[in-house]
Amino acid sequence: MNRRGELDVIVVGAGIAGAAMALALVRDGFDVALIESRPPPAWKVEDEVDARVVALAADAVALFDDLGVWADVLAARASAYRRMRVWDALAPGQLEFDSADRGEAALGWIVENRLLQHVLWRALSKAVDDGESLRLLCPAEVGTVENEADGVVVGLADGARLRSRLLVAADGANSPIRQQLGIGTRDRDYHQRAIVAHVGTERAHESTAWQRFQPGGPLAFLPLADGRSSIVWSLQNDEATRLLALDDAGFCAELGCALDFRLGAITSSTQRFAFPLRMRLAQRYVAGRCVLLGDAAHAVHPLAGQGLNLGLRDVRNLRGQLQRARSRNSDHGAAHVLRRYERERRSENAIAANGFSLIETSFNSDSTAIAGLRGLALGIANRITPLKRRLADAAAGRL
């Protein structure tokens, strides 16, 4: 802290995006306070694989490597996916990606949410123990946020007050900070739920991410390190309810059929969970000296597995803006700095979210004519090398 007891940045929310933001800023020499209501659940290698996993793109892996935590993730448990297969249930045509075509080891990595949170939290705790410029306030809750001309004052529920040049709200899709700042959202309820579970299959997953589009919603199989696959099956609410009520044998039989038995029969399933699917886009990312990050700014359909990757691209962009401001001896919480972040990230996130919605709508149709066009589009994209490369670059965050 400076002589006035003022922090450089307050981050609210220690989910993956918020924790990565706080750790990045500490690594860059900013004085940071991270506020979180409760610590993340512990992760142990002997535990069952977390039901929620993420498909990390190349740029997300690069960020974690730069923060010094990726080696810990690899040492714990992670699974590379080297190929991707995407096809339509109602029409011929398939889109295929292979890391070997680009001379790379993997297209991305499948990692448990809880493991990422655990590794980041451990790195943050170590930063505190090592005397770095971090205050880790947990458990703690924000009561009030007051924007001032040259700073922001946060009142905690226990009566403590913190002052900073900037507040980063990374407190989730239902962000209390966003609501307190009066920032509205544009919402869409897909009237769907995603069923998640880990399943065993008759044939090996081949380090491949499989995705089949069906009239009810997309089905993804993601390869796990132990040979099983993690599924994310998006379905209309009534169909999700029906499938959740089936016994394991009945569910596995329907799941195998839904994937067109590409991996043979489904031989086992863990407990199934389901979560509702909604799109939520903040109408603005900045209010005074407060800025939204990750799910607080955008929640998207999971069909492309890009939700967390978009949030980590927020981290990378905001980090760069703050670094540049500091290198010029400028106020890193000034409006022009935050507006640049807002302009760049809000545009990309909106395009991505609306693109996912368009894909979801078009692939949700069981019209024979529309299905034929979908299959044709997949086939064309697979044959045109520059287009295919651009799609792969977009997914990897290289554009």
CATH 2nd-level architecture of the domain at 7-41 and 114-186 and 279-359: 3-Layer(bba) Sandwich
Note the main sheet. 9 strands, mixed
Q: What's the name of the CATH homologous superfamily of the domain at 7-41 and 114-186 and 279-359?
A: FAD/NAD(P)-binding domain
Structural class: alpha+beta
What's the overall geometry? globular
The residue-averaged pLDDT reads 90
Total DSSP E strands: 20
Spatial separation of the terminal alpha carbons: 37 Å
Indicate the CATH topology of the domain at 7-41 and 114-186 and 279-359.
FAD/NAD(P)-binding domain
Number of helices: 11
Q: Give the oligomeric state of the chains in this entry, treating copies of one chain as homo and distinct chains as hetero.
A: single chain
Strand content: 25-35%
Report what the structure shows:
There is one protein chain. The protein has 399 residues and is of the alpha+beta class. Helices cover 37% and strands 30% of the residues. It has eleven helices and 20 strands. A hairpin with a 5-residue loop joins strand 5 and strand 6. Helix 1 packs parallel to helix 8. The longest helix has 29 residues.
Key descriptive features of the protein:
399 residues, alpha+beta, FAD/NAD(P)-binding domain, 11 helices, 20 strands, 30% strand
Topology:
Elements: E1 7-12, H1 16-27, E2 32-35, E3 53-56, H2 58-66, H3 70-76, E4 79-81, E5 83-88, E6 94-98, E7 108-112, H4 113-129, E8 134-137, E9 142-148, E10 151-156, E11 161-169, H5 176-180, E12 185-201, E13 208-214, E14 217-223, E15 229-236, H6 237-245, H7 248-258, E16 266-269, E17 273-282, E18 286-287, E19 290-292, E20 298-299, H8 307-327, H9 335-363, H10 368-383, H11 385-396
Parallel strand pairs: 1-2, 1-11, 2-8, 5-13, 11-19
Antiparallel strand pairs: 3-7, 4-7, 5-6, 9-10, 10-11, 12-15, 12-16, 12-17, 13-14, 14-15, 17-20, 18-19
Helix pairs in contact: 1-4, 1-8, 8-9
